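Regression report. Comparing outputs from two consecutive submissions.

Submission 1:
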Amino acid sequence: MKWKLELKNLQNRVIHCKKCPRLVSYLKEVSEHKPRRYRDWDYWSKPLPSFGDLEARVLIIGLAPAAQGGNRTGRMFTGDRSGEWLFNALYQFGFANQPNSLRRDDGFKLDDVYITATTRCAPPKNKPLPIEIENCRPYFLKELDLLKNVEVFLPLGQIAFTQTLKSLRLKGYDVPPLSFGHGRLYTISEKKGLRPISLVTTYHPSQQNTQTGKLTRPMFHQVFEMVRKKLKVRS
């Protein structure tokens, strides 16, 4: 289908993007100063493409790749602790074919889920600048046009939540002021011919949250239970 080819071409443009000089420089620095445990790796060190089921009904929006995770392996959430939590939950709820992924060529596949991010390059201290988020936004807005089956949005953490709301407003959705918190469900009504969507919120499965107990596995799994309940039965 034409839209699938467009989506593939979009990800190729992402990979070759150099809009943000600070991030281009940082990725080069990371690849030149690898920690000892990864010294044999050939780092990806480019913007990361989105990935998953092109006909997905669930869209997961991360914040940004980890310098020693996705930036190393070449696939979002692959090879880092946040990914261990995310992929395990996806597997538990039937959205993935295996409980973890350490390399982008290890056979890991998503079913009914597509994963994207607010920022496609690993930023210093995991904190993208506002201008870097804006530079990446057109890629996300185009994905919203092409991923026509998405019913449920799952932004990971407050920044992804805030930026998802902003992008939906730019696409014409009438999004009221919504507050962030874990395990909340919002329904955004159809307007101007746009499909109605659901928004499920969660704390980000970062080590800062999981190691302190701010986010526990039962809490994280609760979110995917909510997602499953919102999905219609696939025909």
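Submission 2:
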Amino acid sequence: MESFSDTVSKESLIYLGSALLVLVLLYWMVSIALKRMGKSPKYLLPSGSFRKLAVPLLLIFLSVFLRMKPLRELLSLEDAGFWFRKASTLLFIFAMSWAMIALLKIVKQIVIRNYDVGVADNLKARKVYTQFTILERIFIFIIILLAVGFALMSFQEIRELGISIFASAGVAGIIIGFSAQKFIGTILAGIQIAIAQPIKLDDVVIVEGEWGRIEEITLTYVVVAIWDKRRLIVPTPYFIDKPFQNWTKTSADILGTVFLFVDYDVPFDKLREELTRILENTDLWDGKVNVLQVTESKPTCVEVRALMSAKDSPTAWDLRVHVREHLIVYLQKNYPESVARTRVLLDNQND
């Protein structure tokens, strides 16, 4: 007759094999479903989603597998049940956190793949990309923080110690709260930027007198790529507390101005005709605004302003340079006497 221990071992082996078979089948079914959803364009998940979820799903199944009593009976480690349960709990928390972060990245990829930041009119794409980039970092920070908290609280000793510390550390908590006030304010400013969006990725801004583009937005700071390839690092509360210029807040198109100081006898109609000719013969002009006005008269000259439009600020800069140069050349060749000059009146009357 079989002994009782042999019967238990066989039953444990059967339970263990059945559980392993179920886990393998579940893993296989999930993997097949994710692969099909990743390969077929008619499904929601983009290609490569399975690779991001495969390892955390496998770790979740492994954590469940470690918690099974037949495994300990088969390995004759019944006394080590506490350590198996703790290892299973920690592995499950780690794997779930990993899976949630992977799912978050997949959702972000699903949303932003319909928006192309590289096109000319990319205002909506930059808005969506900015929101999801900042919110992704916020959620990842919260997931990691909660995972560490759950992992620590799974130990009874740490939980009791934490309760006793919280019960007797009211004053210390207030002091820490005041100390962390600036850091918390910075985090909240990053969240506010993600929601209200005073700035977006690739926005053209003037910050601290510097012209540049928003290159990166994090929870605590913003990187501005200045036109001469320098990088200006600005804390996120700056864009909430202080005024700054955003040239692409609602649209990328912008007006450019060129000022000329000419003599009083300059023919303004001819100058307007030349401005129109210059604009019509360049691809830098978007065809919307073409104005030449006399904005001021001074004792020695007249101030003339040429106003033109372009699709974005870098193009507007190139257009202004182009128009200024050609207008000056036009005056030099056709009306050299109209260049601004200082007049001196000499009195030649005889005594």
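Expected: both submissions complete independently.
Actual: both completed, but the second showed a warning that disappeared on reload.
Relevant detail on submission 2: The chain has eleven helices and eight strands.
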